[in-house]
Amino acid sequence: MPKFAVILPAAGASQRFGDKNYKKPFVLLGDRAVWLHSAENFSKRGDVCQVIVVIAVEDRELFDRKFGANLPFLGIDVATGGAERTDSVAAALAMLQPEVEFVAIHDAARPCVDKESIDAVFAAAIQSGAAILATPIADTLKRALPGDPSTVAETASRQGLWAAQTPQVFSRDLILRAYTERSDEPATDDAQLVERLGTPVTLVEDSTLNIKITTQRDLKLAAQILRTPKKTGLDIFGD
What we know:
Residues 231-239 have low confidence and may be disordered. The strands form three sheets. This protein has a seven-stranded mixed β-sheet with strand order 5-4-1-6-10-7-11, with helices on both faces. Strands 2-3 form a two-stranded antiparallel ribbon. A two-stranded antiparallel ribbon has the order 8-9. The protein is globular and about 55 Å long. It contains eight helices and eleven strands. It has 239 residues and is α/β, with parallel strands linked by helices.
């Protein structure tokens, strides 16, 4: 069985979350922090041998106080993040254990990913070397006028467009190469760095319930998803 490491970036500023006390990965979701929900989706798997959470340097004191005593029992390593998300992931990549063959990078603020989706994207990565969870775009897309974001310039085609999710999973050698060869050009996700190498990335269709917590409303929705037996995305809202 191939061995996976899971990196959970949690070093962002959480500016849109709107909580003066906690960043979104550390706020309570039910009985435990958001990032712990995300970590537990992976830490109990037999194919995962390492979980690394990445936190900002200014959060270290709070993190150690709230979670430090439990980390040895949870088997979770902690890395210190950098100014950009790629810096944070790079810090975690430097901590990979020797036996790791594949690396999954998953938003710490995405606690609702289900086992079936993880199984599918892990299997696809083993097959192709690079795979991400994603959902086909279903909404009609509008492009705004340059300089006037409140006015429609045109309706854009959604054909072939997918919304990227996480985890994004890569062979160890591939993601290390992507990070070693990355330039100063911004990348919005890890798959983009791999794409720049000319390596195909497999799309694995994901559940619409694998939401990323960005706002307080997202937190409430995540709580509802986690409380509800597995159903379709519409069923959780009732009739």
